[in-house]
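User: If only I could read backbone structure tokens as easily as an amino acid sequence. Underneath my words sits a plain record pairing an amino acid chain with its backbone structure tokens. This is the protein in question:
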Amino acid sequence: MAERSLSALVVATGSGADMRSERPKSIHLLCGRPMMSYVLESLRRAGVTQAVVVTGPSGDWVSKRVLEEPPPFPLQFVEQRFDRGTADAALIGLTGFDDFDD
């Protein structure tokens, strides 16, 4: 049986409004690290070989912060320009995979 690679889709579209902040939720600090770094570390431990991160309108801010300490696998960022919910974000995220076979 051929070995299969493991890919991940991360929805990081949340604004910081609930946290009374302009900073997107995914890059708020938790114990000195952006929350997204914990997610990416978990993906690394699970054996993920590539990931697509769906961001909201502050995508540049998120990608810049995440790439300061990038994970050891390729990341692709795609932006959900209009908040249409999580299902729409997931659908948009699928476009970030080069070899997606539905």
Observations:
- Strands lie at 6-12, 29-30, 33-34, 48-55, 75-79.
- DSSP finds three helices and five strands in the chain.
